[in-house]
Write a structure and sequence with these properties.
The protein is built from twelve helices and ten strands. It is of the alpha/beta class and about 325 residues long. It has a six-stranded mixed beta sheet, sandwiched between helices.
């Protein structure tokens, strides 16, 4: 198969786009698509400071790489969760993030892009020369005295599975750190497969509240930072291919606690549909966004759910007194 642009050997064939590209042109195409998404949904501007939640996986590191290539002021945030899984999962994930930043800075100092000589699209507004990307790191066990698995065993939330506790802690800490470090935008590496699976699950049970909030941008306000998903229109396999052509080393293993998750079952069902009908996932998600834009979902705020500051951490919450995050630590007196 040949690249549509130059006729060289293609490294990827995207059937939903009827497009095959070589490594050079694919490494240019992906950032261009991300820039279109950022512009389409008015996610942020070159003047915004963006905090990228990085996990050491392909999507988050690819997102950080793309935003830096595009000229945005993007720092990374890694949360150490204390997950071992028999192979030091959290520590290895952290090492991947550190190695990425070292490699990016080294290639930038040499005047070339990360492990590649491809020319990338950049913003008209140049990032000040004094700015340099940083990796901000917070260890949950060191800060609060317990790892995610330990907290999950102690509390009732999530019926003993760490996923619910993990999500709660990550959301709280990412928002808190974004505010404390004065970042206007919090970006995550959710790709199209992730978004389609969440949409499928919420549609199965018609979770109207969740459906109303799902989208590429969750606006800031009431103590919450603006949250954006610049990869929401790109498939998971496309991000894996991007990492390959860009030479980005990431942790291949999934979180040890993700096995058996309902979201994975949804992804498998959607993958089968995609195989039989290329573009099905993309059409499902984008049609939902169009329907929401056309007023299919009523997004008016429920006035009975009023936000106020948590009595301990000052983060917004609907619960009286302490927020759900701080209630996790009541017995161990570790909340910030």
């Amino acid at each position: 198969m040949k690249c549509r642009k130059c006729g060289d050997v293609a490294v990827i064939n995207m059937r939903q786009h009827r497009l095959a590209l070589c490594a050079k042109h694919y490494a240019e195409w992906v950032p261009a698509q991300v820039q279109k998404t950022i512009h389409k949904y008015a996610m942020f501007t070159p003047q915004d400071r963006v905090l990228v939640g990085v996990s050491g996986g392909k999507d988050s590191l690819a997102l950080w790489d793309i935003l830096l290539q595009l000229g945005y002021q993007a720092d990374g945030l890694y949360l150490g969760l204390g997950i071992d899984g028999g192979f030091d999962y959290s520590d290895e994930s952290h090492r991947k993030c550190e190695a990425f930043l070292r490699g990016f800075k080294a290639s930038a100092n040499e005047g070339i892009s990360n492990s590649s000589d491809h020319e990338m699209p950049t913003q008209d507004s140049v990032v000040p020369g004094s700015w340099s990307p940083k990796l901000h790191t917070l260890s949950i066990p060191d800060t609060y005295g317990e790892s995610i698995p330990t907290v999950a065993q102690r509390v009732r939330r999530g019926r003993g599975k760490p996923c619910s506790v993990c999500g709660l802690i990550k959301r709280h800490e990412m928002n808190r750190i974004a505010y404390e470090l004065d970042f206007s935008v919090l970006a995550t590496g959710h790709n199209l497969d992730d978004e389609a699976a969440v949409l499928f699950g919420n549609t199965m049970t018609w979770q109207v509240g969740y459906l109303a909030r799902q989208g590429p941008v969750l606006p800031e306000g009431d103590g919450f930072a603006r949250k954006v998903k610049p990869l929401c229109r790109l498939y998971e396999r496309e991000m894996a291919a991007y990492c390959l052509v860009r030479g980005i080393d990431y942790i291949y293993e999934e979180c040890p606690y993700s096995y058996g998750a309902t979201s994975i079952a949804y992804k498998e069902l959607l993958a089968e549909l995609e195989h039989k009908s290329p573009g099905a996932k993309q059409n499902f998600y984008l049609s939902f966004l169009k329907a929401r834009e056309d007023g299919f979902l009523n997004e008016r705020r429920d006035l009975s759910l009023q936000l106020h500051a948590c009595q301990h951490c000052d983060q917004p919450t609907t619960a009286p007194g302490l927020c759900a995050f701080c209630r996790l630590w009541v017995n161990v007196e570790k909340c910030t």
